[in-house]
Amino acid sequence: MRILVTGGAGYIGSHTVRQLIAGGHEVVVYDSLELGHRQAVPADRLVVGDLRDIDHVDQLLVAHRIEAVVHFAAYAAVGESVAHPAKYYTNNLLYPLQLLDRCRRNGVQKFVFSSTAATYGVPEVVPITETTRQLPVNPYGATKLAFERALADYADAYPFGFCALRYFNAAGAAADGSIGEDHTPETHLIPIVIQAATGKRPHVEIFGTDYPTPDGTCVRDYVHVDDLAAAHILALDKLAPGMKLAYNVGIGRGYSVREVIRTAEDVTGLKVPVKEGPRRAGDPPSLVASADKLRAELGWAPQYDTLKAILETAWRWHKAHPNGYDG
Ligand code: UDP
Fold first, then answer.
1. Is residue 202 part of a domain?
2. What NCBIfam families does its record include (predicted)?
3. pLDDT confidence of residue 228
4. Are residues 16 and 43 in the same domain?
5. Residue 279 has what pLDDT?
């Protein structure tokens, strides 16, 4: 298939691009490199550009006779979305709506979308299934849900099918340590914990210790980035016009912030300095997936089913690239 991957030089995008290329697909990566990394994708696949430049995207759809779009390009920091909703509504909703319409006009009939567990808000029941009510509690989740709805309306009205993959917490790195997680600034728990273990930051601050969870800290479902990437390949294989697919992607097990810290100490053999702090705005107490539907319908079978196994790959990447891609 000829596939345009927006945000393909980012963390999850680059792992997916690698699998798409290995699967024989013709891949064009479109990335502004604001958060993505040139080194994360083969140079001959990369087109540097911003989603805001929709005519540029349109030219690529036409020139490469694109059949499917895998859309990663977005901002993904919950706390930032609360402080700067305009940034999220513009980048995560306005530009993607333009992209979607150019897909329609250019006959692109398959679309895989990076959605999120944040669309569920504070779920009434855990584990979360795909039919759990979607009621986001932060602008990040709200923009992702709004775009899911637009995709569904397009699929009802036009020859178009989509798959929304609702990611839980992506973590880890390629098994060979060649590509991995590198955000600036880093906001995600696992890389922050590793940075605190290695002395690159003084401590990890725990955002809230008074949540209604077993140890008072937030619980999340951490899924390995290569397992997450594999879900995109399965979705593309399945997609056809008229399909409206949505799947949770998580391993179905929750770990608290304290458990992440303890496991990181175990994996690295290093002490992680900790500071207890207040809650971060917009954080639900517990997000754990039921990914039964993804397993049953697409045959998804994650290779990494424990936090420890995931953290080992994150640690390998960090040791080989202590300063990320630019080191
Ligand atoms: N977290 C934390 N300290 C940090 C970063 C994150 O306690 O420095 C917590 C955060 O409140 C959340 C969990 O770790 O409960 C995972 O946060 P992350 O930002 O990695 O992913 P999110 O769940 O927001 O997508």
1. yes
2. galE
3. 98
4. yes
5. 97
Q: Tell me if 184 is assigned to some domain.
A: no
ipTM score of the complex?
Answer: 0.99
Nearest CA to ligand 1 atom 15: 218
Ligand 1, atom nearest to 190 Cα? 20
Q: Is 261 in the pocket of ligand 1 (CB under 6 A)?
A: no
Structure tokens at 188: 């995600």
**Within a domain: residue 204?**
yes
Q: Is the CB of 283 under 6 A from ligand 1?
A: yes
Question: Are 179 and 153 a contacting pair, CB within 8 Å?
Answer: no
Q: Quote the Cα angle for 180-181-185, to 5°.
A: 150
Classified as helix, coil or strand, 100 is: helix
| Domain total in the chain | 2
Q: Which of 11, 30, 88, 140 is catalytic?
A: 140
Structural domain of residue 307, as residue ranges? 189-221+252-320
Distance of alpha carbon 284 from alpha carbon 118, whole angstroms: 8
Ligand 1 centroid to Cα of residue 74, in Å, is 18
> Running along the chain, 327 residues long, what does each successive block of 10 average in pLDDT?
98 98 98 98 98 98 98 95 97 98 98 97 94 96 98 98 98 95 94 97 98 97 98 98 98 98 98 97 93 98 97 97 89
Cα–Cα distance measured from residue 168 to residue 171, given in angstroms and rounded to the nearest whole number: 10
- From ligand 1's centre to the CA of 215, what distance in Å? 15
